[in-house]
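Standup, Tuesday
Yesterday: got the pipeline producing structure tokens again.
Today: sanity-check two examples.
Blockers: none.

Example 1:
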Amino acid sequence: MLLYLLNKAKRHLEESPALPAGNEVDRAQMELAIAWQHFNHAEPAFVDAAIYRLNAAEQAYSTLLKEQKISFRERSHHLEIVQ
């Protein structure tokens, strides 16, 4: 059964539209949405695996948002006001 699900997930990834190449935050957000779908439709035997995937996706998304915020602060700190 696990092998069947892994193959199904692999086919799903191959058939899915390509994620935006340059934006990691968009990709992480898409992965989080997919993880939520898997959790919502998981069979009882696979709920734990869906929870692990969901937690990982949430952490990745949160980390990227924090990094983006830090990067924005650093850039805005170095900007000079020109009159």
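Example 2:
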Amino acid sequence: MIGTHRRNGRQTPQHATTATHEVRGRTLLLALCLLVGLTTLTGCTNAEVEETPEAAAAEAGDDAASSTADGAAAAGTAEVIEVEMIDFGYVGLPSSVPAGTQLTVTNSSDEELHELVAFALPDDEERSVEDLTTLPPEELAAALGEPATVLLAEPGGPEIAAVGDGTLSEPGRYAIMCFIPTGVEPQVYLDAAAASEGGPPQVEGGPPHFVKGMNRELMVE
């Protein structure tokens, strides 16, 4: 019989927990690689890509998520919001949440590795997240700074908390983005990140997912 443990009120098979621990060390390095990798995206951030039907559907589900978050804020309780990552968008991610909200992720893609990287934007940063995604890589890295949290998941795989646990404690405006290159094999990318020794993973792939619409603005109140 497969053992289970409870996480965020849900029971998770023990083998999924074991798999998470096995890759956690690699993904801590991956998180650093993602940040360093911003400087390797020259020419990618200005690509013009049409929004996919899946990403359009993601926006349709956000009103319900916003209502849930607003109800939690009114009740004065911390909220756990599960965000579904698809090709290429975030389903169930509201436009605003109360401070202390914890985000968790699932990956419904058939092929793509996805992540949710949250950056707390400076108070004097007035550009929209959409505008930030068009910046040259060096300017984008400077504008975003260090991530508040990084959550990843392979297709159908368990959540991997590479930075933080998804809790957004500080009020302010956040940029939510996915930096994974389009079309890269998930395991190939993870293996390349683990072998890169601090540098960006050397993999072939298309533009990062945030160029294809996998970027959002989130207000933490």
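Quick observation on example 2: The chain has one domain: 4-220. Residues 4-220 form one domain.
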